[in-house]
Amino acid sequence: LKLQFLYLIEPQSRGNFVGSGAYTTTMKAVACAVTLLQLCGVADGRWVYTHNPLTTHPKAARTFPWVNALTSIDGIIPYAPYDLKFCPPDDNPLYQGQDPPDPDLGAALRGDSLHFSNYEFKMLEDEKCKKLAPCTDEQRTLRQDDIQKFKDFIIEGYRANMILDYLPALIKDRDAQRPCEAGRNPERFARAIKGYLVGGCKMEPSENEASKFFLNNHLEFTIKYNEHTMDDGSTQYYINGFFVQTRSYSEANCAGGDLFLEGNEMKVDWTYDVKWELDKTVDWPTRWDYYLASSEADTNAREHWLRLTQAVLIILCLAAIVGIILARTLHLDFNRYNNPENDEEMQEEVGWKLVHSEVFRPPEWPNVFAGFIGTGVQLGGMATVACLFGFLGLLSPGKRGVFIMYILFLFFLMAFLNGLVTGLIQMMFGTRQWKFVILSACAFPSVCFFFWTVMELSLNAGASNAVEAKTVFVLILLWFGVCIPMAVLGASFAYRLPVIENPLRYNNLKRNIPPQRCLFKPLSTVLLPGIIPFAAANWELMLILRAVWQGQVYYVFGFLSVMFFAVAVCVVLTVITYIYYQLVYEDYRWWWKSVMVPSGLSVYYFLRCVVYYYGKLRVKTWLGAWVFFSFSIVTSLAMFIVFGSIGFFSAWMFTRKIYASIKIE
What we know:
The chain is α+β, with helices and mostly antiparallel strands.
């Protein structure tokens, strides 16, 4: 088995590492492990390969590109490629009786929809001003409604996407690819991006604000290829680059000025050029390098290391606070409380020892708290495994929607951990209620399903590529047929385990809590400590936002994994410090506080999304705004639950440790 793991580490560091013995040993170990999984039937080779299997073509062989959804940074909502009158291949005899491939679950949720096209390429044969055929007069005719629809899509900066041998069409001429209003902000198109604009606009010399819309009816394809020697000695070719450039011609012979969208009816001649270029510097496994290099995540490796160093410095500062100040204070406390010679100090309990009889009292709404932590473990386990898959190169950028599908399956399978943790915490609180186990498996998916349902109902009235009913049925089936049963299975296993005993018991009567300082008020608890982990994660979160909303490819899962670990360490140290001083001031209500301390990270992330929305995007429809803010709310909620759970476990282990280390009479 020939495995392609060239993206085990980031390309920027791969050059100095490939020749080392550590790299060779690591690659052999990973290859052996994945090979064993394949031989045992656990892993399917189609998903394990970092890249798609080698596809070769003989000379003059016909290849046909697929057309994908119309996408826009400003419009956000994807549309089917033939929602605009692009001369669909309805009368093409090559596709009679055939249906385009059904997208996988992840691609369907993304809005991807592959369709046939009338474009046809012959291997190594250049074409000049070739007309798109078959294309009837009716398909070439744009009426008033069609013209207005093109204008609306041009204003929102929509791009047509094409795929050839799993490679999306990439445009490099940035200056010619700025939509009307976005052209005033050149920073937004500083790099090559996928897809080409369906049209543009030119300002009238006499009127500064008026513009004339033109249609990009001519495409110039540049297809790069390399040679491959077959087993029989013959030479075939594979495609290692797919680029496109747009032109607008008012005449059928690819001449004249721009084809402006005006009048009540007009005819459009769709034409294209094809140019083949031999490129022996790019092999099949590395043909995605250009696409990855065009991403914001790969533009400056120094920036990644700088932000990572910043996160490490934050961790060191927090560790200094915990290790020097907190540990020293605790050491003095232990000596004072456990020294039998200090009888007076033993009789007069002060500080955090004073609340020893209250500190392990169950919180308010204990079952809700247990379900919250269980959901956090489920989401955290899903995120950890997904980052690991990406880090090992098991997620190919050529597989549409695979990452989303992995996320869904991992979420449903991790429901076992949800039920397990929920059941264990319930038993620790002295309760056992199945309805809250089921609620923990349904709460977060219900929030996601609500936002998604509203979006899909709106899309059914607007975009033609809304998710089909069968995809909704599959999601519901996975939810009720996998997620809930897995949670119940985990809880049933937890109920059979021994009850977790805390070091100290609590009194039946609650102790009065003295007035607290402003730092420990709920609003301060949320806003102040969350600044620290957000400062460590801000840059990487920004890159992810750009990858999601600006059509870029995010693949530096190595940096993401390290940053996730660094933020988790920041959360742990921050929560421990905060909870310690809260106990010192005799406030024993630390259960929910341990969750609230890192919640500021999700609050600042949502505010960062708002700034990004108004600063970088130009969304012009309420539906696009709904999609953006729905995504922002759901991801903020997920971050709150995950890091809140990490905060709880760190505070819980900390309190158990310190209260188990003192003598209580």
